[in-house]
Structures are given as C-alpha cells and as structure tokens.
Write a structure and sequence with these properties.
The complex is a heterodimer of chains A (267) and B (332). With 267 residues, chain A is α/β, with parallel strands linked by helices. Chain A has 8 helices and 15 strands. In chain A, the strands form 3 sheets. In chain A, strands 11-10-9-12-8-1-6-7-13 form a 9-stranded mixed sheet, sandwiched between helices. Chain A is globular and about 70 Å long. Chain B folds into 2 domains: 7-190, Rossmann fold (3-Layer(aba) Sandwich), CATH 3.40.50; 208-330, TPP-binding domain (Rossmann fold, 3-Layer(aba) Sandwich). In chain B, 29% of the residues lie in helices and 27% in strands. Chain B contains 9 helices and 18 strands. Classes of the chains: A alpha/beta (267), B alpha/beta (332). The interface between A and B is large, with 89 and 88 residues. β14 (227-233) of chain A pairs antiparallel with β10 (146-152) of chain B, so a sheet runs across the interface. The complex binds flavin-adenine dinucleotide and adenosine monophosphate (AMP).
Chain lengths: 267, 332
Amino acid sequence: MNIIVCVKQVPDPEAPPASFKIDSATNKVIPPPGVPPVISPFDEQAVEAALRVKDAKGGKITVISLGVNLLRDVVKKPLSMGADELILLEDPAYVDGDSWTTAYALAMAIKKIGQFDLIFCGRQAADTDAGQVGSAIAEILGIPSVTVARKIEVNESKVKVEKVTADGFDVIETSMPALITVSNELGEPRYATIKGIMAAKRKEPIIWKPADISADPAKLGAAGKRMAMLKLFQPVKEGKCEMVTGENEEDAAANLAKKLVEAKLLS
Amino acid sequence: MAENKGVMIVAEFLNGKLAAISKELLGAGSKLAKDLGEELSVVFIGEGIAGIAPEAIAQGADKVYVVDDVLLKEYLTDAYVAVAEKVIQQVNPRIVLAGQTTLGRDFTPRLAFRLNAAATMDCIDLSIEAGTKKLLMTKPVYGGNARAIFTSEVLPNVATVRVKAMTALAPDASRKGEVVTITAGLDAAAIRTNVLQKVVQEVQGIKLEDATVIVSGGRGMGGPEGFKQLASLAKLLRGAAGASRPPCDSGWVPETMQVGLTGKIVSPDVYIAVAISGSSQHLAGCGGSKNIIAINCDAEANIFKEARFGVVGDWKKVVPALETKLKELLGR
Ligand SMILES: Cc1cc2nc3c(=O)[nH]c(=O)nc-3n(C[C@H](O)[C@H](O)[C@H](O)COP(=O)(O)OP(=O)(O)OC[C@H]3O[C@@H](n4cnc5c(N)ncnc54)[C@H](O)[C@@H]3O)c2cc1C
Ligand SMILES: Nc1ncnc2c1ncn2[C@@H]1O[C@H](COP(=O)(O)O)[C@@H](O)[C@H]1O
C-alpha cells in the first residue's frame, strides 16, 4: 500500500482563548508567545489512520505539508509516529492563497509521487475550519472521496469507511485510489516512540519548490486564489456573568435554582 | 456564457418534508435575492421528492428544480455532485448555498471545485455589498476564536451556512412559484461509492437540536457515572443531555451527544454547562444559546465569560443540590 497523508502546521488550537490575538493591519494571527504551533489535530488522526492501514497491510506512508516557516520538530512528528517519508512544499509562492491553491499544489505534488492507493487528510484544518482541501484534491485527481471517517478497513482493491453522520454512521465502500478525510472519532493518535524520534531526527525532509512539481505559478498562492479575505476580527464578548454564591456549594446551587426560576428561565 | 444570476439553494429533506436547514437557507436566500433584485431558486435532488415543492415555494422559493431519480434515493457524493453540476450549468446562478450538515460538508466543496470555484464553509452571516453585488461571507475561523469575511473572485459563489444561523420566513401558502423538472441523466458507473449500511445511534427522549433546555457535561465529569446525574437533571427540566468532546472521545457517552464546531450546533433557551472549560470549539456549538449557565470548580474558566449565571464549585455537590431545589420550586 502506498499511502499519502496531508498535514498542516497550525497555531495550537487548544491554547487558552484569552491568548488569541489578531493584527488587524495585516489580518493575520499574532502567534502567542511561548505556544509553539502544532500539526492540526485531525491531521494527526489522519496519520494515525494511515499507520493503522500500514499495520494491517504493510506499505509506505508519505507525508506532505505545505507552508512557510515549518518547524522541523513539528512537521517531523508523523515520522516519529511511524511515517516513512516527509515532503515539504515550503516556499513563499505556495502561501497566502486559499483552499483552491493549496489543493492544487498538494495535488501536483501527489501526481509527482505518482503511486498511491489512499490519501488521508484531516476533516478540517484547525485554523481555516473549512474542510475543503481534501475533497478538492480528490476532485483535481479525479478520484472518489469519503469524508469524516471514524474507521477505515482495506480489503483487496476496495476500502470500507465508517463515515460519521449527525445521528450515527454510514458504512461506505469505494474503490482505490481514494481520498479519505479523518475525524476524531477514529481515536487517539499513537505516541511517538523513542526509536521513532531518533529515526525522525536523522531523516531529512524532501523539499519541493513549485518547479519541482511542475506547478503553474499563476495557480499558486496569492496569484491563484479565488477567495479574498476582506477582514479578520475577533467577535466581542459581553461577559456579564452573575456569580451565584452561598454559604457552601450546595447553598449556592439552591440559590442558582431560585434565580433561574425567578428569571423565568425554567418553568 | 450568459451572466450568472439569482440565488440557488440546495435542499435537504427529513421524513418527506423540507429539512429545517433548508427553510433557514430559503429565509437567508430570499433576503439576498431581494437585495440583488434577482430570483431565488431551490434544487431538489432525491427520489420521490417532487411533492415537497409547494413547501419550498411557501418558504420563499420562486422556482423549484426537481431532479428525481432512483439513483438519488440516498446521498452519494458522485451522484449528487454530478446532478447539481448539471442544474447549475443550465440555470447559471450567481450564488449557490447549501447547509453545513453531514451532506453539505461533503457535497459542497466537491461541487465548488468541479465548477472551478471555491466554497466558503460554515458561514454565519451573508450579505450583498451594495454596488458591486458581491456576496460578503462571514465565517468563524481558528475554532471560533476569530471571524473572517470573504468574497469570491469567481462565480458562482458557493457557500455553506451554519445550522440555526439564519431565520426561516413564516410559510405563506399563497406564494406562487414554478416547478421545473430536470432529468438526472446519471451514468451508474460514474458513481464510485456505495452505502453498505446506515447505523443510527438512537438517543432516547428529546433530540439535542430540538431541546429548549440542555444539560451538558465535560471532561471534569471524570467518567460516565456523572452523566447519569446530568441525564436526571435534563429529564426534570424536560430537556436533553449533551457533552463536550472529551467525554465522547473517552466513550463515556455516545459520540452523537457532542456539542461544538464538529458536533451538534444547538441554541436552547438554557444551556447548563457542567465541568466544561469553554473552549472556542465547544462554544461554536452552544454560543447561540439564549442563556448559558456554568458550573465549574475553576473561577477562571473561560465558560464564565460566556455565561449569564455561574456557580463556582464541584459538580458533585452543586448538581444534586440544584436538582433537589429545582424539583421543589417547579413542583415536580
Ligand atoms: C479542530 C477542533 C475541533 C474541535 N471540536 C470540538 C467540538 O465540536 N466540541 C467540543 O466540545 N470540543 C471540540 N474540540 C476540543 C476543544 O478544543 C476542547 O479540548 C474541549 O472542548 C474541552 O472539553 P472540556 O471543556 O470538557 O474539557 P477541559 O477543557 O479539560 O475542561 C474541563 C473543565 O472541568 C472543570 N472541572 C474539573 N473537575 C470539576 C469538578 N469536579 N466540578 C466542576 N468542574 C470541574 C475544570 O475546571 C475545567 O474547566 C475541538 C478541537 C479542535 C482542535
Ligand atoms: N497547507 C497544507 N499542507 C498540508 N495539508 C493541508 C494544508 N492545508 C490543508 N491541508 C489538508 O486538508 C485538510 C482540510 O483543510 P481545510 O480545507 O483548510 O480545512 C487538512 O486537515 C489537511 O489534511
């Protein structure tokens, strides 16, 4: 099995909301001091999904990440978890685009890799909260896609996917090659092993510039984008919580009950 | 090619009726269509759905495009995208809107890319820029910590809209509209996925999306036991029980109870958040509640910034006392 996983470096989404700041002049996020970026959590789950397929069927896992200032400690994490190879699309020409330009570049890199049975993405990146790039790669490559997976099982030439739905899950079968986006219901990603960390340290990522993947510069980054972001801002919060107290916790709870009934919130 | 014109909604159905999200989309779409001075249409994709057309017209649609085919009985990405592409090529709308639902999340990006456009997912506000007629799309990003306003450089402008973010119009049975049938013309061989099984994890009692009172628990509940207590409080309040993501990930409660950005979007009158810290991703799902009540042992927890009433304390003491007192006051 040849498996490709697309992972994105993002600001840590679990950082305290109070540390989140925007530079309104540039419409960009100001990285909170002392909080390093991470691999978008669903992408780590996508790596885990790939590792589970590799555990069952054997094969090779190639990880691709597109961006600039990609911290080696961050983007090498999939290697330390057990992935085999890391390709970085690291160049200013790739960034400041949109999901279309990102998907185009990733699809061109995947074409260059050539051989693949499965591509895994996260169900959505923790910065864009979009959930498009996976489907877009599948569309560009002309392969089927199944989104929001919680379980993946490969049999012969077919793959069976449990797709999370609002009230349960669907079991969907498709042919390979296919693209699958992965959700947290898959389960916790595995920890890196000491052996994996050592191996990852020694492994240098392969860097592909736009010319290496035969990308049309007019379709990349800011030059190729279809969407324009006019403004990035933080919603204002009112923050007028009435703290209900009492002699002790039980008493505070009883006072809360009174307040809720008095305010006619409950009846 | 002719000019792109009008607003088109992609409908979803539930039990032979228009789904709530589709009514919300028609509500939002009518306003946009009015501001543009253009038409509002809706596309029905499915099997045996033509009879629902009057409902869509009553909710604001000027035209209903019906594509009815046995191959469209259940949602399959390839089939639905192919049909929608065909309808859009024929009608040439300026704006295409779907819901941020199980279907819309899967369908919309693929459709947009097939049309050589890009989608904006999970919008909470849509408006037309006067003069340019551009659609301004506001969506939460960074897990809800920020919002971004996007416009599209290409047409059609494709977007999904968050559930409960828009308001449906009051149905008007006297509205007139046109129903147009379009043949699917699908090639079964081009449909590459196959649904083997649909598994529904039944929840007892009131559904989260419909509840006016919700009692949700978080990681601080410490295990499945505490959720019995929350379920009992929810029952007393004739509401539903929910959860943040960690209790679902840990298997304390079913995954379908998850509230948040990637779980259910709820907007009850009262949302009681117990041992939930108030991450932006959780608030993305419950921030639309009329009143949030927070119970947390950490006075600094972010949830208090969003709450109307709060109690600082251990849920093990607070929740039972709250239930006892409410039982007494409500006479149940
Ligand atoms: C892309 C992305 C999508 C996500 N989507 C969602 C989503 O849809 N929904 C969601 O919920 N999360 C989601 N998350 C996860 C989210 O970031 C948080 O990790 C999660 O919401 C935290 O859940 P929590 O508040 O229950 O846990 P914690 O943040 O660990 O908070 C537990 C709280 O319990 C309190 N506590 C502990 N013990 C007690 C006690 N005895 N009595 C009272 N209080 C107590 C603590 O003070 C603390 O405030 C997502 C994350 C990412 C990155
Ligand atoms: N810059 C990137 N590099 C690698 N993969 C990416 C990148 N952007 C998006 N992806 C993949 O596409 C998924 C969906 O991204 P999005 O559409 O932005 O929500 C992510 O979870 C990743 O798997």
